[in-house]
Each structure stands twice: as structure tokens, then as C-alpha cells.
Design the sequence.
């Protein structure tokens, strides 16, 4: 029998689309090219040198052949860097991919996904993409995550982000532990900015040892490799095996894998120096913001959140002056605010001038 191909009904392909995707828009972080982009917290200091050398020397094999199915060598390099066993590591096409894969691995459509509000703006998107009910739990009075509030929905997956994007606040370890001890399902702790906080207080070793925590991290921020798309998760071997099923094979490109391995082994000092510069500039920049009469939040990351009136209009005016920052209008607890990435000092001076101009 011939397959029946009927013409599309009036609603077009939408009629065939997954129910949960109705009304789901493509992710739009408003990232038009701009002379100086301080909007996405990537490393503004350039490319780590060993990674650069690997990319420049790309050979035929790295391009024409499939990469390692589950990136075994990269997992080993990450394990050495994070101080865990390689069977506790899963990689992905950016940590976005690791987050999405792990959320999918531990939920059925219709389940709940609890996350702080505000947090990484991709979380509500991942909830929708996976047919889940996203439960946004307002930050506590003190600006940190609300452990009791996050536990309340008894979600299949509970997400925490430390340091939190966009507030920059590191979550108190006792709150993370409280969530871990009482969560009804799996806990995902996003440590995308851990290199700027206190890496020795990472929950990676805890994740490797217990069965209900996955820590996610990325090479997009401190390591400066956002364009290559490399992220990873750390959990018990059992947790990691489930995420790997959901992730699927060949998610990290061959050349990307080699560059990432070079960065993790040979570029650590380069990264540490850039992190140190970032922290010094963050202090100076926050002081300068206070000099403009603003009240930036304390940050443990490579960005600051600063409440301003009319954030969208202020960001638009800064953009006209050649500086892109991320506007967060109507944030829970903070109202309108701008999130500004920390880069070189000349870049920060330019951002200050653009902000001063936009506010006057
Ligand atoms: C930037 C960011 C990520 C995503 O990083 P990729 O690895 O580039 O996908 C994840 N979580 C948070 C909180 C981020 O800010």
C-alpha cells in the first residue's frame, strides 16, 4: 500500500507538533552583534593558548571521521580536573545539552521541575521542551535559594545554580545539603561559574559519591570556549549512565574534544590568571557603579547584577553606544536590573561610560 500523504491542514505543521511545544518560542537572548558584548558572561580575555594551538593544527582525521562516541578521553581529562573518577563524568554539547539530557532522563512528561526565581533563563525553556510543569520558587528574603520552597512541590527534578545566574549569589552549602537530604527526586546543581567562586567548595565530589545529585559545569565561561560547545556533568556512575542514554552518541565534536582536553591540562594557569583579573575588575567595577549612585549585588561570578530604572531602555541606550549588556526587566525581588559581564579593565571603563550616558 502507498503511504497516505494528506495535504497539510490550515494549521500547517503545528497540527503534528508535540502538544507541549504550542506557544514555545525559539530562545532569543537578544544577541545581535555589538562592538563590545558584555551580555553573555563568556570570557572576554581571548582564547586559551593550548586550545588555540590544537584548533590551528586540525588534521584530516579530526574533521573527516566521527568523534569518540561518548568522548572517553575528554571524560578522563575532566575527571582529573574535577578530582573524580572518569565513570562519574558525562559530557555534552554545552552544559545546556547536559541539563536538557539529564532533565529528560529523570522525568516523564507531566512531572514537575522546580527551580529558583530568578535563575538561568533556560530552565523554563527546558521544562517546556520536556513537557514538564516548571515550578518557579522565589528566592528567599535574603536573596539566596529557598530550600524549603524548592522542596515543597516534591518535584522529580530540582534545579539549583551556584553561583546563581543572574544574581551572582553563591548558594549556602547548608541549603544545598538540605535540598539533597529531602528532595523527592534528582537534584541538579549548576556550577557554570564555579571557577570564579570557590572551586574547593564545589559539590562535584559529593555528586560522585551520592545517588541523587548531578553537578553540571561548562568550558564556556572561565575557559573561554563557548563557541566550541563543551559542557559536562558529574554524578554517581549510575546517574551518569542514565544521562548518557538520554544524551546519545557523538555529541562532542572531535576537534572540540581535543581542544577541550588541551585547555583542561595545559591552560589551567592561563585560566587561573584570567579569573584573578576578573575578580579584581569586578571589585573595581562595583565600586564605580556605587559611584554612579547604583547598588550592585554582591557577586561570586564573572558578572554583576545591578538594579537600574527602565532596564530595557537603559540597555538599548548602551547598545547604541556600542556596549551590549543583558536587561532583566521586573526581576523578582530586584525589579529592573542589568547583568553586566566582567572583562578587561578598558572594556569595563567603556561599559561605565555607556551606562553613565544612558542613565543621564
Ligand atoms: C552560560 C550558562 C550555562 C550554559 O553554558 P553552555 O555550557 O555554554 O551551554 C549553563 N548554566 C548557566 C547558569 C549559565 O549561565
Sequence:
Amino acid at each position: 500500500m502507498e503511504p497516505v500523504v494528506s495535504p497539510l491542514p490550515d494549521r500547517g505543521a503545528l497540527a503534528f507538533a508535540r502538544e507541549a511545544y504550542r506557544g514555545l518560542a525559539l530562545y532569543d537572548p537578544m544577541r545581535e552583534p555589538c562592538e563590545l558584548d558584555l551580555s553573555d558572561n563568556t570570557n572576554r580575555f581571548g582564547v586559551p593558548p593550548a586550545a588555540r594551538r590544537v584548533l590551528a593544527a586540525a588534521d584530516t582525521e579530526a574533521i573527516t571521521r566521527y568523534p569518540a562516541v561518548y568522548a572517553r578521553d575528554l571524560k578522563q581529562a575532566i575527571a582529573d580536573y574535577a578530582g573524580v573518577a572518569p565513570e562519574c563524568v558525562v559530557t555534552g554539547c554545552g552544559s545546556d545539552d547536559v541539563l536538557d539530557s539529564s532533565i529528560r532522563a529523570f522525568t516523564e512528561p507531566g512531572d514537575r521541575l522546580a527551580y529558583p526565581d530568578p535563575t538561568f533563563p533556560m530552565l523554563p525553556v527546558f521544562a517546556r521542551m520536556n513537557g514538564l510543569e516548571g515550578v518557579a520558587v522565589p528566592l528567599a528574603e535574603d536573596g539566596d535559594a529557598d530550600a524549603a520552597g524548592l522542596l515543597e512541590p516534591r518535584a522529580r527534578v530540582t534545579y539549583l545554580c551556584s553561583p546563581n545566574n543572574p544574581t551572582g549569589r553563591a548558594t549556602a552549602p547548608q541549603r544545598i545539603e538540605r535540598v539533597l537530604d529531602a528532595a523527592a527526586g534528582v537534584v541538579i546543581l549548576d556550577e557554570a561559574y564555579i571557577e570564579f567562586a570557590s572551586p574547593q567548595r564545589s559539590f562535584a565530589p559529593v555528586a560522585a559519591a551520592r545517588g541523587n545529585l548531578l553537578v553540571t559545569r561548562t568550558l564556556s565561561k572561565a575557559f573561554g570556549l563557548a563557541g566550541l560547545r563543551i559542557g559536562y556533568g558529574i554524578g554517581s556512575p549510575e546517574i551518569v549512565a542514565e544521562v548518557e542514554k538520554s544524551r546519545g552518541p557523538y555529541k562532542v565534536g572531535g576537534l572540540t574534544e581535543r581542544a577541550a582536553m588541551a585547555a583542561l591540562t595545559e591552560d589551567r594557569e592561563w585560566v587561573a590568571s584570567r579569573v584573578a583579573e576578573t575578580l579584581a575588575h569586578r571589585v573595581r567595577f562595583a565600586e564605580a557603579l556605587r559611584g554612579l549612585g547604583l547598588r550592585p549585588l554582591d557577586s561570586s561570578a564573572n558578572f554583576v547584577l545591578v538594579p537600574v530604572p527602565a532596564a530595557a531602555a537603559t540597555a538599548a541606550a548602551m547598545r547604541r553606544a556600542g556596549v551590549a549588556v543583558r536587561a532583566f526587566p521586573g526581576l523578582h525581588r530586584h525589579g529592573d536590573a542589568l547583568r553586566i559581564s566582567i572583562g578587561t579593565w578598558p572594556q569595563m571603563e567603556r561599559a561605565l561610560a555607556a551606562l553613565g550616558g544612558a542613565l543621564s
